[in-house]
Write a structure and sequence with these properties.
The chain has 228 residues and is α/β, with parallel strands linked by helices. It is 47% helix and 11% strand. It contains 8 helices and 5 strands; from the N terminus they run αβαβααβαβααβα. It has a 5-stranded parallel β-sheet with strand order 2-3-1-4-5, sandwiched between helices. α2 packs across α8. The longest helix is centred in the N-terminal third of the chain and has 22 residues.
Length: 228
């Protein structure tokens, strides 16, 4: 049976009240430290957050905004593509494994450089298959393949095909990207995620600000649980 305190019967001593105040102050200070996510960059070990998804999901926009919030660098995986890769995609030709692997390895090297320096880094990268994500997870020098316990974490921007087509057509009309909407279906079919990977999924039909706030909440929760 639980103990019930009846108002007016139990009178707290001054010492009890003082101890409660001290506990409250310490608790608030701890919460404030956790909420100040930019301090992630000062951790002894670096952290990497990969904003993933198909073309048109908003990886670059969200990644850049999140990096500004966390006061860290943002890497756009598209920049790391070779000119031949970009030309293939511009012509609507899907990339082969021979095209992707060197590209992913260059991203791995960039992430590892930041991780070993104890920095926080945000990467915008499609990361459609587990084997590709494993290459990026291996940027953590202590990572064991298949464990999914890595300093590199993934957040999937989830968007319907209809919204993606609309976004890609708009970008193509504005000449802002080399990826045509014709390759979207192949990307959607290629995207595969296993629940055991622990990838966070965010509804990316929301406003960019709302999406970034959700990701920041995920980061905070993960820090509380000791997962990031």
């Amino acid at each position: 049976m639980g103990v019930k305190f009846i108002p007016g019967i139990y009178n707290k001593s001054k010492l009890d009240m003082l101890l409660e105040v001290h506990v409250l102050i310490i608790t608030k200070a701890f919460i404030i430290c956790l909420i100040c996510v930019p301090n992630m960059a000062s951790d002894p070990e670096g952290k990497a957050i990969v904003i993933m998804g198909v073309s048109g999901a908003g990886k670059s926009t969200i990644g850049q905004m999140l990096a500004e919030e966390l006061k860290c660098d943002f890497l756009d995986a598209d920049v790391f593509h070779s000119q031949s890769n970009k030309e293939k995609m511009r012509q609507g030709i899907p990339l082969s494994e021979e095209d992707r692997i060197p590209w992913l390895q260059s991203l791995q090297e960039a992430l590892r450089e930041s991780l070993t320096a104890g920095e926080t880094i945000i990467l915008g990268c499609s990361s459609l298959q587990n084997q590709y994500r494993e290459i990026l997870r291996s940027a953590d020098p202590y990572y064991q393949l298949g464990s999914y316990v890595s300093a590199v974490k993934f957040v999937l921007l989830d968007v319907s095909a209809e919204v993606l087509v609309e976004r890609l057509n708009k970008r193509a009309a504005e000449g802002k990207h080399f990826m045509p909407a014709t390759l979207l279906q192949s990307q959607l079919e290629f995207l595969h995620i296993d629940d055991s990977e622990g990838i966070y999924k965010v509804d990316a039909t929301q406003s960019p600000r709302a999406i970034v706030n959700v990701i920041k909440s995920i980061i905070l929760l993960s820090r509380l649980l000791g997962q990031i």
